[in-house]
Amino acid sequence: MKKTAKNLCGPEAGRAFYDGREAFMKAALEDVAGQFSLDGASFYEYDEKLGLLRLRQRHAHGISFEHEESLRPLPGSAAARAIEALAPASSKTPGGSFLYSPFRFDYCDPSGGRSVVPCFGLVRMERSARKPRFSHSEASRADAYLRSFLRDYYKAEFFSLHRKYEKSVAAITELTEVFATALRVQDSFRHILAGIQTYFGFDRVRLYLIDEKNHKLKGELSADIRGQIKSMAYEEIPLEPGAHRFADIVLGKSSGAFMERYKDYVLYMPLAVQGVTIGLLIVDNLLSQQLIEPAELAMLKSFGGQIALAVDNSRLFDKVEELSLYDELTKLPMRRYFNQRFQEEFYRAERFKQPLALVWADVDYFKEVNDTYGHQIGDKVLKEAGRVILSNLRKIDFPCRYGGDEIIILLPQASGIEAQRLAERLSRELSELRIPVPFSKTRELRVTMSIGVSTFPADASTMDGLLEKADDALYWVKSHGRGKIALYSDVAEEKKKSAQAESK
Amino acid sequence: MIIWLLSDYDHRKHLAFKSLLARFSSAYPDTTIEFSVKSRRSLWESLFTHLRDPKRNPLADVIEIPQNWTELFSRLGLLSELSSSVEVLSQRRYPEFILKELCRQEDFRAYSAPWWLEAPSLFYRPQALKGAVEEPENELATWDGFRAALDRVRAPAKRGNFRVLSVPGSSGSVSVADVLPRVWGRRGGLFSDDFNRATFSREETAGGIEDWLELAVSGKIELFNADRFENGPRPAEDCAFIISGRKLPGASRSGLKMLPYPGYPSGGGLMLVSNLAVSASSRDHGEAAAFVAWAMEPRNISSFAESFGVYPCVKSMFEERLREEKDAGVYRRLFSAPELKPNIMVYPTAELLLEHALWNLSLKIARRDYEREDLMRELILAQGEADYLLSLY
Description:
The structure holds 2 protein chains of 2 kinds.
Chain A: H1 21-35, E1 40-47, E2 52-60, E3 63-65, E4 70-71, H2 78-85, E5 89-93, E6 96-108, E7 116-127, H3 136-181, H4 185-200, E8 204-211, E9 216-224, E10 229-231, E11 236-238, H5 245-250, H6 256-262, E12 266-273, E13 276-284, H7 294-325, H8 335-351, E14 356-363, H9 366-373, H10 375-392, E15 398-403, E16 406-412, H11 416-431, E17 435-436, E18 444-445, E19 449-456, H12 463-478, E20 485-487, H13 488-503
Parallel strand pairs in A: 19-20
Antiparallel strand pairs in A: 1-2, 1-7, 2-3, 2-4, 5-6, 6-7, 8-9, 8-13, 9-10, 9-11, 12-13, 14-16, 14-19, 15-16, 17-18
Helix pairs in contact in A: 1-3, 3-4, 3-7, 4-7, 9-10, 10-11
Chain B: E1 2-6, H1 11-27, E2 34-38, H2 40-52, E3 62-66, H3 70-75, H4 87-90, H5 96-102, E4 113-118, E5 121-124, H6 126-129, H7 136-139, H8 143-152, E6 163-166, H9 176-185, H10 203-217, H11 227-231, E7 239-244, E8 257-260, E9 269-278, H12 285-295, H13 298-307, E10 311-312, H14 315-324, H15 328-334, E11 338-340, H16 347-367, H17 372-392
Parallel strand pairs in B: 1-2, 1-3, 6-7, 9-11
Antiparallel strand pairs in B: 3-9, 4-9, 4-10, 5-7, 5-8
């Protein structure tokens, strides 16, 4: 038990540091009980507003223990007199003799603020009825002895407040850095939540962002008290008044009564950038029911702008990245992105000895479409082609607008036959499309695709080889009437037969 | 090894633990043990503070917890699995009603070992009931009978400090520990049977709470009473009734007799179980688990529990104690249909929500501006928060 009391400067009262309030109270009660032959000693804090004494620590029968007890001193009693006059008072009853030694001191906020932290209470010393009562001189000595101890209490409290202040300064420095360096959306959200949990340690932190397009508040991530971060993508809240209290908060329509009830345990912090709300950060101590200290709330609120900015920045970063890697028209990745993924997928296929199919597609007569109907219609054709492709692929497939009307699709772990099936599906869906052309006689346009397919390792053992073989197959289709699909293996077989026939 | 013991209003428990440790130290002189006695609130805060910053706020190696905190803190990763290292747990040598709540989610793993239990009961002094209660067994079996008896009992002459009812464990305000036995007696509870919703404001639950609050409103129990503080412990002779979960010291000398808690006419009642757990972050899990196993040994658990008038949880000792019990008849009725508080993740927090509501109501009662609407408003608000918690966890 002595472990927590760090007696750094010697045993005398008034010269020791204690590691926290509990360590101090325990040491003080044990010491005073020993010095003055007490049967019990208790440390009470006084709640002036409610007029209640709250037991914090008690020492009796050689054991110190915390216990919960709140009581109101009887008017005119020794305890009431001690509190009122801030002077020791004693009493003798059939239950024993009691000496009350009150204390009161106020701390200045170590952060330099103007707030004052009051510390008010009394120590009750007791002797059983069979022991002599406290004499006047004994009461004075005991009170003086306790007062010298209470100077340590003051120090312990002050240092504890100072530690909190230091922690806040560290939090400000490091969180600012976390928020400033957060870039990619998922990483940065994780960093932000982890940063908040590291310094504040709430039961939960949840981040919601506004999806303007769908008019929803969407769950992003949550972090629990152990720092575990989970996706909340399953949570979607309609952004309409009355739909949900989170929506009301974001829309500025939440009721005051509701916020008042939860204000000590939950902070709902709308995230706004330049006056526009982009999301909602919620921190709570609902499970532990521990008050969120006002200083913590104030600090977190002061981070609100930075968090919002960091969230917005990371979303912008992702947007810019999307623009640089994806084709805006077809929504398909661009060639630069494809080259990177092609290398990764090819390496994976080689290493794990898995097949990899490559589909190379070309919109038939695309140049004529542009020349005849204009680029607007040409763009529509490409847009529809992109949509059809994206809606038919597996998660692991990777399409790309390779240039002009040429589209390449990587199909990891797919054989030539499987790639052919996909190509047939794409070709069929595309041919069923009717692109409206208001000013033409037919009023609509129908398009087809020529598609060539090659596979690793059957057709080629290098990346260039795979591209080349798919291009060969595509060329074969184009030179044989277009609107079809060809596997390079079939084309090679065909070519072989033709060559043999020619040689004969 | 450091142990955190839950504080108790009854100093006999602290002394019993001290003597238990002395025996352990003489059996295992190489093991150094320190212990701290923490209040429920302080223990709760320490556990959460550890979760927030484990390095700066280490946990004790062995921790005494209320049984229904087990699920919460094991799911938060604070408690070690014990059934592999504590034989009584692996062999399930506990009464069935205790095991049922210990392993609500799992059959094979246990994150705390049930240690001792108490059963809230009614003690009375026949001398004080003369002229007010003719047949205590019958008249005090129901809450209404008990309540009427409280009104009829008069203070004897020359007993200025006389109180009709004493609740030794009171913390000053009306607390969850005070109201729950009555809530259970009315077949109420904090959650529905399927744990899908909170039921604070359900008639049975609110009624049970109201029954107890009425005792405070009518002055049968005094809130924030300074009496014990100013005058020392009240002798049992100064009370007609005492509600306590354990055998009182000198009960037979004072002529106290025991009955089941009023309102359980067919027997049964709410039992409060305390367990020992080993923290997951203990540096010497083996030593800590060995202490728990040692504390559960028949002689140790039995002498510890007996020292402060409670029952040991290990089945053989529980049954032996019941056989030797002077008030065996009453205890048999109590244990005929025992009920425990549910060991589910949000239950401890739900109790805190109710505690908060009861504190607010106690202040109002003490200020004499309490009305029934206050109770319903507080319960509805607390219920809303508990429902929200259920949706989160």
